[in-house]
Specification:
The complex is a heterodimer of chains A (621) and B (356). In chain A, the strands form six sheets. Chain A has a seven-stranded mixed beta sheet, with helices on both faces. In chain A, strands 3-4-2-5-6-7 form a six-stranded mixed beta sheet, sandwiched between helices. In chain A, strands 20-22-21-24-25 form a five-stranded mixed beta sheet, with helices on both faces. Chain A has four domains: 5-225, Pyruvate-ferredoxin oxidoreductase, PFOR, domain III (Pyruvate-ferredoxin Oxidoreductase, domain 3), CATH 3.40.920; 236-422, Rossmann fold (3-Layer(aba) Sandwich); 429-503, no CATH class; 511-620, Rossmann fold, CATH 3.40.50. Chain A is globular. Chain A is an alpha/beta fold. Chain B has 356 residues and is α/β, with parallel strands linked by helices. Chain B has two domains: 26-249 and 287-344, Rossmann fold (3-Layer(aba) Sandwich); 254-283, no CATH class. In chain B, the strands form two sheets. In chain B, strands 2-1-3-4-6-5-11-7 form an eight-stranded mixed beta sheet, sandwiched between helices. The chains are: A alpha/beta (621), B alpha/beta (356).
């Protein structure tokens, strides 16, 4: 065996692509974990079809997982892959357009059969003609080498052996990028603990892939990416959905309330239900309801009983929950509604990302029905946003809508695990004594006598003697909470509920402007954080002056937002919708906003944003 | 046969009781709100019966919650001095499910109507019954939409002339009891607003039942469907028409020579003059029959002309309740006590960490 040279890179973008059943998400996940443990900073983008198993070998069935890892801080999953692993012709065809000239293609040549080529309209085998001459192509018979490597595993069928080809590919890529195998070995040991034969086959395939890289002459160079310099601490890799689920558990822990989740399965939010249903040891109660409406109803019922009621959904589900959220506005009870946004309208693009539920979250209810709306900016921020949602919901007794999205939910990044003692404390105290006196001076409980600071009403839960009271969706008299149709009272209550939400304390918007005199501000919200920061970095590296700011609080806005917006000659606002936040800002602050929008179901790339912002900068010159 | 899985078997188990010697009165359950139903509404009688019955439970008042939807009946919680929620149309069973599951120490009641429970909230009703959540559902059936002023409801008869069916309804109605039995409800009963004693007896049994209890209450709407149940309120007519469901007894209407009784023959259940009945074919009512088929067949003896109307408890069987099951899983995972900071830190860290 000749020893091969190792070349050091500062960053690599790999895309694993194959058929939906090829295990590409798992392969990508494992490569990500191994890279994270090596200390690389990273960001991931899973991209898969809504169909569970689209016809094999076809373009609609292609599933991919992109990973960007580097020796410096990473902001996006990468605009374009440096390496494409294509497990079949469909995967090659579907992804080749994203691949810059000169990039590396590792293709499973076994799958490039006449039949598979025909399925995607290749007349000739691209691995054999010269159509791929602008790329570095490694045609590797991944399936047959895997089967051969497992020749001695008699208990397995040929099909079982073929299924291990993703582990062979992972082993090969791990060699190519000098990743350790230990993490994946222990992962497989856990996953297949009860299936020793499958475990043995997967381990053998993984190691065979690694050995293949070492011995074959196809790969002459091995690459290394040094650890990134990150703030000291203990890290793990985490997806947005997992971070959000853990954040909700932490919120229950910090408030001392029981977490009660009412949920109905919906892509891409279901993982929240899956994760939380497995955390019963933390007192987390999960109810899989008969529909979206029942899910939020159960959560609101639990909140009435003194729990932290939460419901998780995506856009279509938020539409169905609207009336119950309105009831929450009227009852003034804490309620957390998580909307993991996906492409709409209607069923839309269930597995793709979008930010087009902002106006639905803001206004999608009858009547004047304001709720708090917040949005996480990165997968790791999903943890903190859950705590923030709980703070607002419990302190102000209000529904809070959290707008995550498919990109944050399934994407991952390293997360510096916070020490529990550093989490915000937010103990909740229920009202247990009368809070008012009646006309005769007798102590009484008045359900809508508010805290003068927060305007929150008392939270007196069933089981509290002497405070028996009724709440409901009919307009209530100020103070007492009794039914009231009085015109002046209604006007007062509508304005009071609005004032309560408008008065929620939120931190000022921080602006990042390294130059100190930028004339253009790029404002964002939600998952566009990474692409915006990456684009700003590209521009700043090119000598441009650009300021950036990112909104986590969408209702109410930070108090200094108007002042920030007016401080720049131009405000550019990229959104994965047709300009929903721009509409709100123009209406609220009477400032012009240059909206830059795209709704392709994918996050912005840094390059396209840099180009768009660059054009705006030119106009200012 | 019921399976003993160690679950509580009484509806109000786990709900704090008043100390021995202390008792509440009807007045204690009467709120300070003015009752605003129409004069003559059947809801008044039901309210009086419920207020009169609640003290009998011996529960602490603060541990009783009434949740309602939308409709005339759904104003009910405002008139009871317990905890209460007047929610939105059709959703009370879902809200009550979240409340009852997360609070074992509460006695949770749902008040609903035929439109609320069977039309807009039909899905929640059947699922609450299927899950067997420990709640008691009082379904006021007046066969009309009252609060929206007189449209036909899902229990209105075919041909009913209403504001929205000027030439008669062509909509086939639900039989609420059949529906509940089809959803595998563990307790299903029917009673009447005007029969205080029967209503109270049924409430007593429903409250004692652990699991979802559905009580259909025939209720007169004097404004939009007056007299809908008149035949069953007239003493003599009722005598002849009401098939009394008494556990262990033949199902009989009328007396003496006019008595009729339910028999099972090759065509299923039939109502025949008792004097003609083959004694071997006369069925004896069994509320705890694990097979709901007979109870369902009894519910089908109903007909729109009220020729005979089964009245009483159709079914009362023990089966595991959803909320007990959920709490049991939590307890088994030691999720009852407060978890420590260390537990949370371990969760957050997961399996693959690295230190910088």
């Amino acid at each position: 065996m000749t020893s091969k040279t190792t070349q050091t890179l500062d960053r690599v973008v790999i895309r694993f692509a194959g058929d939906s059943g090829d295990g590409m998400q798992l392969t990508g996940d494992r490569f990500t974990s191994d890279s994270a443990v090596l200390g690389n900073d990273l960001s991931t983008l899973p991209n898969f079809p809504a169909e569970i198993r689209a016809p094999q070998g076809t373009l609609p069935g292609v599933s991919s997982f992109q990973l960007h890892f580097a020796d410096h801080d990473v902001l996006t999953p990468g605009d374009a892959p440096d390496v494409l692993v294509a497990m079949n012709p469909a995967a090659l065809k579907a992804n080749l357009g994203d691949l810059p000239r000169g990039a590396t293609i590792i293709a499973n040549s076994d799958e490039f059969t006449k039949r598979n080529l025909a399925k995607v309209g290749y007349a000739d085998n691209p691995l054999e003609d010269d159509s791929l001459e602008s790329w570095q192509v490694h045609a590797v018979p991944l399936t047959s080498i895997t089967v051969e490597a497992l020749a001695e595993h008699d208990a397995l069928t040929r099909k079982d052996k073929e299924r291990a080809k993703n582990m062979f590919a992972l082993g090969l890529l791990s060699w190519l990028y000098t990743r350790p195998l230990d993490g994946t070995v222990s992962f497989l040991e856990r996953k297949f603990a009860t299936k020793p034969e499958i475990l043995a086959a997967n381990l053998a395939a993984l190691k065979a892939g690694h050995a293949y890289g070492e011995t074959t002459e196809t790969f002459a160079v091995q690459y290394a990416v040094a650890p990134a310099r990150m703030p000291g601490g203990t890290y793990r890799n985490i997806t947005g959905n997992l971070a959000l689920a853990y954040g909700l558990v932490a919120a229950a822990h910090q408030t001392g309330l029981r977490l009660v989740l009412g949920s109905y399965p919906i892509t891409p939010a279901s993982d929240l239900l899956h994760t939380l249903s497995g955390l019963k040891r933390f007192g987390v109660m999960t109810l899989q309801a008969e529909d979206e409406i029942a899910a939020v109803g159960a959560a609101l019922g639990a909140s009435f009983g003194g729990s932290l009621g939460v419901t998780t959904t995506s856009g279509p589900g938020l539409a169905l929950k609207a009336e119950t959220i309105g009831l929450g506005v009227s009852l003034e009870l804490p309620l957390i509604v998580v909307d993991v946004q996906r492409g709409g309208p209607s069923t839309g693009l269930p597995t793709k990302t979008e930010q087009a539920d902002l106006l639905q979250a803001m206004f999608g209810r009858n009547g004047e029905s304001p709720v708090a709306v917040i949005a996480p900016s990165t997968p790791a921020d999903c943890f903190d946003i859950a705590l923030e949602a709980a703070r607002i919901a419990t302190a102000y007794r209000t529904p809070v809508i959290v707008l995550s999205d498919g990109y944050l939910a399934n994407g991952s990044e390293p997360w510096r695990i916070p020490a529990v003692e550093t989490l915000p404390t937010m103990p909740v105290e229920f009202t247990t004594e009368p809070n008012d006196v009646d006309a005769q001076g007798k102590p009484v409980f008045h359900g809508y006598k508010r805290d003068p600071e927060t305007l929150a009403r008392p939270w007196a839960v069933p089981g509290t003697p002497g405070l028996e009271h009724r709440v409901g969706g009919i307009e209530k008299a100020d103070i007492t909470g009794n039914i009231s149709y009085d015109p002046t009272n209604h006007d007062h209550m509508v304005r009071t509920r609005a004032a309560k939400i408008a008065g929620i304390e939120v931190p000022d918007l921080a602006v990042d402007d390294p130059s100190g005199d930028a004339r253009l501000l790029v404002l964002g919200w939600g998952s566009t954080y990474g692409p915006i920061q990456a684009a700003a970095r590209l521009l700043r590296n090119g000598g441009e002056r650009v300021a950036t700011a990112h909104l986590r609080h969408l209702n109410p806005f930070p108090a200094n937002l108007g002042e920030v917006l007016r401080g720049y000659d131009r405000v550019v606002l990229p959104e994965m919708n047709l300009g929903q936040l721009a509409l709100l800002l123009r209406g609220r602050y009477l400032v012009d906003i240059h909206s830059h929008t795209a709704v392709r179901g994918l996050p912005f790339t840094a390059a396209e944003l840099a180009t768009a912002i660059g054009e705006q900068l030119e106009e200012l010159k | 046969m019921s399976v003993d899985i160690g679950m509580p078997s009484v509806g109000t188990s786990g709900v704090p009781r008043l100390p021995d010697g202390e008792a509440l009165s009807r007045k204690d359950f009467t709120s300070d709100q003015e009752v605003r139903w129409c004069p003559g509404c059947g809801d008044y009688a039901i309210l009086a019966a419920v207020q009169g019955f609640l003290p009998e439970l011996g529960l602490k008042r603060e541990n009783i919650v009434f949740v309602s939807g939308i409709g005339c009946s759904s104003r009910f919680p405002y008139y009871l001095d317990t905890y209460g929620m007047h929610s939105i149309h059709g959703r009370a069973p879902a809200i009550a499910t979240g409340l009852a599951t997360s609070r074992e120490d509460l006695s949770v009641w749902v008040v609903t109507g035929d439109g609320d429970a069977l039309s807009i909230g039909g899905n929640h009703l059947i699922h609450a019954l299927r899950r067997n959540v420990n709640i008691t559902i009082l379904l006021f059936n007046n066969k009309i939409y009252g609060l929206t002023k007189g449209q036909y409801s899902p229990t209105s008869d075919v041909g009913a002339i209403t504001k929205s069916t000027p030439v008669g309804s062509v909509d086939a109605p639900f039989n609420p009891v059949s529906l509940a039995l089809g959803a595998e409800a563990s307790f299903v009963a029917r009673t009447m607003d005007s029969d205080r004693k029967h209503l109270t007896d049924v409430l007593r049994a429903a409250a004692a039942h652990r699991g979802a209890s559905l009580v259909e209450i025939y209720q007169n709407c004097p404004i939009f469907n007056d007299g809908a149940f008149q035949l069953l309120k007239d003493r003599d007519e009722a005598q002849a028409r009401l098939l009394h469901l008494v556990d262990g007894e033949p199902i009989r209407a009328g007396e003496g020579a006019d008595a009729r009784v339910v028999v099972r023959d090759v065509d299923g259940l039939r109502v025949v003059p008792e004097q003609d009945a083959d004694p071997a074919a006369v069925i004896r009512h069994r509320v705890d029959d694990p097979d709901p088929s007979t109870a369902f067949a009894i519910s089908r003896l109903d007909d729109p002309s009220f020729a005979h109307v089964p009245m009483g408890i159709f079914r009362s069987v023990d089966r595991p309740t959803y909320d007990d099951g959920v709490r049991r899983q939590l307890a088994a995972a030691s999720g009852e006590g407060h978890h420590s900071d260390t537990d949370l830190a371990t969760l957050l860290a997961g399996n693959d960490t690295w230190t910088v």
